[in-house]
Design goal:
InterPro entries: P-loop_NTPase, Sulfotransfer_4. This is Sulfotransferase domain-containing protein. It comes from Hemiselmis andersenii (Cryptophyte alga). Keywords: Membrane, Signal, Transmembrane, Transmembrane helix. There is one protein chain. With 292 residues, the protein is an alpha/beta fold. The protein has a single domain, classed as Rossmann fold, CATH 3.40.50.300. The chain is built from 13 helices and five strands.
């Protein structure tokens, strides 16, 4: 029974990744011979603030970065489902998810869903260094989020994807609880007016929560110097290769297109076997009646 359950969960997870289009996400970094750092790094920036570039940069500097549980640690999804179902209010569920991350040797984390637990991570690692990745403005972030992550999640919260990802509504409730992003009750799309406010208040909360000496407010275009300096990497050991770019926009665009098509066209797919069955029935009746 355990084996069958595992296969079922693996199949559902694979279908979810396929639907998201995240299976094409680039999880590579720049080759690095850096030794594993001793300090813990917590990424507290919201998604779509250059977190993919920061993840690659941290990997290059020798960190083992927990970046987006969907692609890096699918084996943890059962633990995260419990976090979603309680909207992060159950301490035991939160600690179990973070225990799994720490137990697997990750010394850095960034992006959803783990960034939403930056306070809990900081409580576990009070000396950790925290990176708040940012955009040029709240409005810029809102526009990008609305057309990528927000659009994708909204489609995933509707049939046919809810058959494969039944916890999607729980996930959006957790996201709303933590960030203040409001979702439309009718179609689960983000309410545009809530996004700039959520971004601004999130950044303000991080600034007020993290001790100033442990916080780096960082725009990826700043490149290596401020990041290396903050993490204690000597200038002579700071990478000379170009800073990694987040080139995932095309992948997000493709994912949103395919998922939206599936959302609106899936009833037509269900009609195909019905039409075939109807044709067979009609042909059979015609044959029988003809014989009669």
């Amino acid at each position: 029974m355990v084996g069958l359950a595992g296969c079922k969960n693996g199949l559902l997870w694979g279908l979810f990744l396929l639907a998201c289009g995240l299976f094409v996400r680039d999880v590579s970094g720049i080759e690095s011979g850096a030794a594993p750092p001793a300090s813990k790094v917590i990424g507290a920036g919201l998604c779509k603030t250059g977190t993919e570039s920061v993840r690659k940069a941290l990997d290059t500097l020798g960190y083992k970065t927990y970046h987006h549980m969907l692609t890096r640690d699918a084996g943890h999804h059962g633990l995260w489902e419990k976090v979603y179902k309680t909207r992060g209010m159950c301490r035991e569920s939160v600690q179990a998810a973070l225990d799994a991350m720490d137990g697997d040797g990750y010394n850095a984390s960034i992006d959803l869903p783990v960034n939403l637990l930056y306070r809990e991570q900081l409580a576990r690692h009070p000396d950790a260094k925290v990176i708040l990745s940012v955009r040029d403005s709240a409005d810029e972030w809102a526009e990008i989020y609305m057309s990528t992550v927000g659009a994708l999640f909204a489609h995933m919260a509707r049939p046919p994807f809810t058959f494969f990802v039944p916890w999607m509504q729980d996930w959006l409730s957790f996201l709303s609880k933590r960030t203040g992003i409001v979702h439309s009750a009718s179609d689960m799309t983000p309410v545009a007016a809530s996004l700039p406010k959520a971004y601004t208040e999130w950044a303000a909360e991080v600034r007020s929560t993290v001790p100033p000496k442990q916080l780096l407010e960082y725009h990826p275009r700043q490149g290596w110097p401020p990041l290396c300096d903050f993490l204690g990497v000597p200038p002579t050991e700071c990478p000379t290769a170009p800073y990694p770019r987040d080139d995932s926009k095309d992948r997000w665009d493709r994912a949103v297109v395919w998922v939206s098509l599936a959302t609106y066209k899936w009833p037509l797919i269900l009609l195909v076997p019905v039409a075939v069955l109807g044709l067979i029935t009609w042909a059979s009746l015609r044959f029988v009646l003809g014989k009669g």
